[in-house]
């Protein structure tokens, strides 16, 4: 059992550290800049109090990255107490105010009393790369969703009939909008020429798409105010959606290539139900990879870490059904206890 416990309340620019002994008495309370020099000085001062120390943090990524990296580089034992657990625990402590010093004391005290906190340790290089790529992909997918929603709203203002018949989550309709946006231009071009234009761009189902666009154009002969400018905006938004689709495809290729460099890639590929076309998303793929690599409390964590339904007592996971939905993808198992 450690002699002292150091709690770090993590902030963006500053952290607050409180060190307590076995009786809960404060031995040190300090606010430090999120800077390598000051953090190394803090680690040295804490180790001067006792080398048998257990560190605890309430955030395991973002602003905590530098502090966690330095502690792990110095082979310091480190546990993770989620911020929500700190919030609930604060009700049992004196005082209604919330300060960084109070939170840091709660973190240290909870680490002193509890034996069910997950231990943070470094993740392997491939798993870290997969986390970064998956985070980037999630951002791109959100950007694409926003772009498609803006595209729908803009098209609805000038050509509601076309917006109604197009499925803008498919590549073909979006490609059509890069060249044709108004009823007049579609009627003037005609179904045959639009079909040829789509075929030259390797769009699936060009005949049906061209016919649907012309039928929508035949139903609207009124040019609405601002149509010319709105049409140019629709074309620009459509090109933006296509660019995002291409970037997402590139990231997917990087994820797949990096995944096959993982030490357990062959094992995962041999699992029942696993196949390149099994329908698993890259995020689910990352969850599977991470479950083979380490518990969800390993740092840096996966962006899909919450899919494990992790609680302060959960730091290991088992995956039984690769075809399950992401919400039920993994269930936590009992976490290892801190050695007494």
UniProtKB/TrEMBL annotation:
InterPro entries: Transp_IS110-like_N, Transpos_IS110. It holds the Pfam family DEDD_Tnp_IS110. Signal peptide: none annotated. Residues 6-160 form the Transposase IS110-like N-terminal domain. This is Transposase.
